[in-house]
Structures are given as C-alpha cells and as structure tokens.
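Hi Y.,

Following your request, here is the sequence exactly as I used it, all 122 residues.
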Amino acid sequence: MSRTLSLSQSASVTLNSNGNGTVSVGPGTPGHIWMPQSVTISQTGAFPATGSASMIPLVQIYAGNTQNANDLVDATYQVLGAASSVISGQAIYPGQTISAVFQYGNPGATATITVSGTRQVP
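Below is the corresponding structure, written out as tokens. Let me know if you'd prefer a different format.
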C-alpha cells in the first residue's frame, strides 16, 4: 500500500557564458511517483539584455524522458520568475525528470526550478 506525501523539490544551476543552462529534478527512488501540481522557475539578477530579436530570454519546461516537443509542458519569457500549473495531472516516475531549459539568460546567474505537489511512496 502506498502513502501520499507532500512534494516540494528544488534544484539550481549556474547559467553558462551564453546565459544557457538546464536544471532537472525527478523521483530517484524506485517505487516513488511524483504528482506535480505546479512548477516555479526563477533566475537571479535583472532581466537579461537581448542582443537581437533571435536571442530573447526563454524558459521551457519539460516532463518525461526527453527534452523534445513531445515532452514540452510549458514555456515563458518571464525568466526572472514564473509559475505554471499546466503540469498538473501528469505522473512522473523514477527515471523521468521535470526540466527547465533556460536560454539567453544572465551569464553566471543562478537558475532554479521548484516542483510542488504530492508524491506516492511505498
């Protein structure tokens, strides 16, 4: 019989010299299943300056086994802080992750993802 517990898991990454980085979290213990209700992203510093129209700061959130269009959950231009509940209703199993891919942010900034919801544990 499994128990349902609260879930609040965060992880951070330092963005590279181009302002890019990926941060991921997921259940690492066999038998644990995450039932996320929201994903929050944030980035330190001021809003990134854009060098051109093709370099607009963006964060894409993925859930599943890959970071491709099939696993794309949501995206935002609000790179300094935003929350999304679009992920609600999905189950994340061991071996899967919830990832935030930051593009054209502030080089050297800290980018963070926080996943909230519930988790089922044996």
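The two ends are 6 Å apart (CA to CA).

Thanks again,
Q.
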